[in-house]
Amino acid sequence: MRVFWQFTLALLIAAALFAWSLSAFSTFAIGRADVLSALTGAGDTTAAKIVHRIRLPRAVAALLIGATLGISGLLMQGISRNRLASPTMLGVTGGASLGLAIVSSGLVGASMPGGVAAVIGGAVAWSLVFLLGTAWSEEASRGRLVLAGMTMGALCAGLTRLVVLLAEERALGVLNWLAGSLSNIRWTDVQVMGVVLFGSFVVGALVAPSLNLMNLGAESARALGVRLRLLRLSVFAAGCVMVGATVAVAGPIGFIGLMAPNISRLMVGSDHRILVPMSGAVGAIALLAADIAARGVAFPAETPAGAVTALIGAPFFLILARGLR
Amino acid sequence: MTHAIHVEGLTLGYDRKPVIADLTLSIPAARFTALIGPNGCGKSTLLKSVIRTMPPRAGRIDVMGQPLNAMSARALARQVSFLPQVLPVPEGITVRQLVGYGRSPHNNLWGRIRGTDRAKVDEVLARLDITDLAGRMVDGLSGGQRQRVWLAMVLAQNTDIVLLDEPTTFLDINHQVELLRLARDLVATGKTVVAVLHDLNQAFRYADHIVMLRNGGLSGCGSPDKMATTPMLREVFSIDACIHPDPECGRPMVIVRKP
Fold this sequence. Notes:
The complex is a heterodimer of chains A (325) and B (259). With 325 residues, chain A is mainly alpha-helical. Chain A has a single domain, classed as Orthogonal Bundle (ABC transporter involved in vitamin B12 uptake, BtuC). Chain A contains 13 helices and no strands. The longest helix of chain A has 35 residues, at 46-80. Chain A is globular and about 65 Å long. With 259 residues, chain B is α/β, with parallel strands linked by helices. In chain B, the strands form three sheets. In chain B, strands 6-7-8-3-9-10 form a six-stranded mixed sheet, sandwiched between helices. Chain B has a four-stranded antiparallel sheet with strand order 2-1-4-5, covered by helices on one side. Chain A binds chain B through residues 81, 138, 205, 208-209, 212-213, 215-220, 222-227, 265, 269-271, 273, and chain B through 48, 51-53, 73-74, 76-78, 80-82, 84, 87-88, 90-93, 97-98, 101-102, 104-105, 109-111, 153, 157.
C-alpha cells in the first residue's frame, strides 16, 4: 500500500513538473491558454506552436530519457552488486559519446547512424572496464571496478576532445551536444526514446527476480537457479542500447543513472520488481527538473541539463561513497 | 548403496596449478558426508563445482545419476542447495524475504511467493527457532544469527542434496550441535547432506561417511570407524593423535598426543 502511494506521489510530481515545463522560462510569453490549446491540437497562435513543436517534445523526451537512464543504472548496479555503478561510472556514457563524436565529426564511418555508433562505443568501453576491473569474478573488489570505470571515462573524454579538435568545421555542433542538452529534441527523437524505454521496462521486468537473487552473491544466485551468463549478457546488451540511445538523442547526461536507483532504494526497499518502475519514475522526474533548472538558472540564456545533473550528482556520489566506505 | 553425487577424473582450478586434480569420488545418497582436510585442500572448490560456479577443466560430475552438464540451472537448483562459506550481507531485505528467496527455484519466473511457499518459509523459520527474527533486517543481525538465517534459506529450497560449506564456523557450541542434529534429521527424511567440517570429533560423531582430501586429491573415504586412524590423521593433517571411543556413544574421538 505504501508503494502505491509513493508511485502516486511520483506521478503527481511528474505531472506538475511537466505542466510547468511547458510554459516556464520562455523568452516568448506563453500563457496557460496557449498550453491548453496546443495540447488539444487546436492552437495556431505562435505561442501554441512553440509549445507543440518545441516545449512538448522536449518535456516528453526529458521524462523518457530520465527513466531510461534510471533503469539502466539500476540494472548495472544489480549485476555488479555495486551501488556506485552507473552508465557514467562504468564508462558506457563516455564510450558512447566517443563513438558518436567519431562518426558525427566525419573522421570515420560518416555513413553510420549516430545511434549505432553510440551503442558500439558504449559496448566497447564497458567490455574494457569489465576486463580491467575483473568485475565478473567474485573476489574483485568494488573499488577496482569504479576505478577502472573512471579511468575509462577519462580516457574516452580525452579522445572525444581530440576528435573534436581534429574536425574543426563541425566542432561547435559536437561541443554543444557533448555538454548534454535537451534543446534540440524533435518528435522523432521522442519516438525512438519511447521504443527504447518500453524495451527497458520489458528487460527490467524479466531480470528483476534474478537481480533480487544476485543481492545474495553470485554463488547463492547460481545455487538458486539464476543463469548468470544469460543475465549478464542481457543486462550488458540492454544497457548498451539504453545508454547509446540517450547519448545519441541528448548527449552524455551523468548522475541520473547513479541517483535514481539509490533514491528509489531508500523509498521502496530492495525488491527489484518494484525498483525497476520506481527508478524509472525517479529518473524521469530528476531529468525533467534538471532541464527546467537548466533553462532557469541563467535565463534568458540556456545551460545544458547535463551540467545541472552533474552539479547535483557529484556531491550525491561523494555522500554515497562515504556511506558505503 | 546409490550415489547422490559422483565425480570422475575431475580437475578444477583457476590457473595453471589445479586445486583438485584427477579426483574420482562418490557421495552416498541419504547419508551425511563430512568433507575434511587441511586448509586449501580443495574442499570448498569441490562443492562449488557441483553448483557449477567452478567449471571443471577435465572430468565429469553426475548428480543423481544425471550428468551435470545436461541439467538446466533451475532443475539443478531444485535438486541441490548450497550454503556458501562467506555470506554476503544483502542490504535492505528482511529475514523473511531472504528465506523466501530460497523458494525461487520452485515458484514462477517472476518470483511470486505462493501460499505453499509461505507455509514452507514459516515451517523452516520455526524449525530453526528464528521465527522472532522474521521481521528483522538481515544487515542488522549478528554473525551467528546470519548463519542460521542463511541456513533457513537453504532449507527452504527443500532439495534432495544439501551442500554446506563450513556451516559451523560462526556458531557457538550450542548452535553447532543444533546444526549437526539438524543435518541428522535431514538425512533421516532421506536427504543427502555434504558438509565441510573442521572439527574432527564432530565429523566422526555425526557423519555417516568421511571424505578426506589432501593437496587436491583423495586420501581416503569410508565410515568414521575406518577413517579415524592414527596413520590416516598423520598423513592428512600431519598430526600425531590417538583414537579413543568417546564415552557418550562410542564413536571415534581424536586426542592429539604430547609432542
